[in-house]
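Technical annex B. To support the medicinal chemistry partners, we prepared a structural model of the target in complex with protoporphyrin IX containing FE, based solely on the information shown next.
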Amino acid sequence: MHCYTRQQLALRNGQDKPEIWVAFQGVIYDVTSSRLWKNGKHYEHWAGQDLTNELKDAPHTEKVFEKFEAIGHLQPDDFNSR
Ligand code: HEM
């Protein structure tokens, strides 16, 4: 899988480019087709970032990613695992 930097991911926030991407545990998912991520916004969260640490605030688990295509990896140095 292709590796992307945090800067490349940030351009897929639903505002700068047509693609909408979200990173979770180092994997980048394309959520462009989701009406729940329209314009890059999902409740109080924005796409174009690693939202690993934010999932704990969600009323759902990571199972929500199952139906989306993993399109790449976030560059390990940029992987916000803290
Ligand atoms: C306050 C925080 C959040 C709220 C209230 C929220 C709410 C929801 C709801 C109601 C759904 C649809 C029902 C379901 O699948 O359970 C959903 C789907 C989803 N959520 Fe969240 N969520 C939040 C945070 C997050 C975060 C932080 C992420 C990413 C790490 C995320 C990723 C997703 C994805 C990928 C879907 C599936 C979208 C689809 O199927 O089209 N959510 N969320």
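Notes passed to the chemistry partners:
The radius of gyration is 11 Å.
The chain has a mean pLDDT of 94.
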